[in-house]
Amino acid sequence: MSYKRLYIASLMGVLSGVVCVLLACGDGYLMLKVVAGIFTGRFLIGFVIGISAWKMHWALHGPLMGLIIGVPGALGAMMSPPPQFTKWEMFFMSLLMGVLYGFVIELVTSVFFKARQI
Questions:
Q1: Sequence-separated (6 or more) residues with CB below 8 Å from residue 73
Q2: What is the spatial distance between Cα 94 and Cα 24, in angstroms, rounded to a whole number?
Q3: Which domain holds residue 81?
Q4: Is residue 118 part of a domain?
Q5: Which of 22, 45, 58, 78 is deepest in the core (most CB within 10 A)?
């Protein structure tokens, strides 16, 4: 396993978690458990990308990991959607964001830092 890949992908997961929490709060307030769920979900996407041994192109690998890891968070997002969204809108938006963050994490890890899978 490449520790460089693990470190970069995990760090990108942390940064993605911070960005996602900031975007989710907007002007409002989020409960600590919601913040923790968003942050740990994005970190977990980065960590799993870093340790994954699935041999596939990076542009497919990142989004796939984001989709797989994002399902529990998307289900959790259905529990208390804000008034402007339905439960299903929250589910699909959360899932889509997991896919997008997975793509960005893998892009930075594999393309910018050239930390390829071994």
A1: 37, 38, 41, 94, 98
A2: 10
A3: 3-112
A4: no
A5: 45
Q: Domains in the chain: how many in total?
A: 1
pLDDT of 27 > 80? The answer is no
Tokens of 43: 């970190």
Alpha carbons 110 and 79: distance in angstroms, whole number: 35
- Has residue 82 been placed in a domain? yes
Report the pLDDT averaged over residues 96-117: 96
Q: Would you list the DSSP string of 34-90? A: HHHHHHHHHHHHHHHHHH----S-HHHHHHHHHHHHHHHHHHHHTSS--TTS-HHHH
User: What is the rounded CA–CA span in Å between residue 104 and residue 97?
Assistant: 10
Please check whether residue 29 lies inside any domain of the structure: yes
Instruction: Evaluate if residue 2 carries a pLDDT over 80.
Output: no
What are the tokens at 3? 């520790």
CA gyration radius for the chain? 14
Q: Can you say whether the dihedral through the CA atoms of 93, 33, 8, 45 is positive or negative?
A: negative
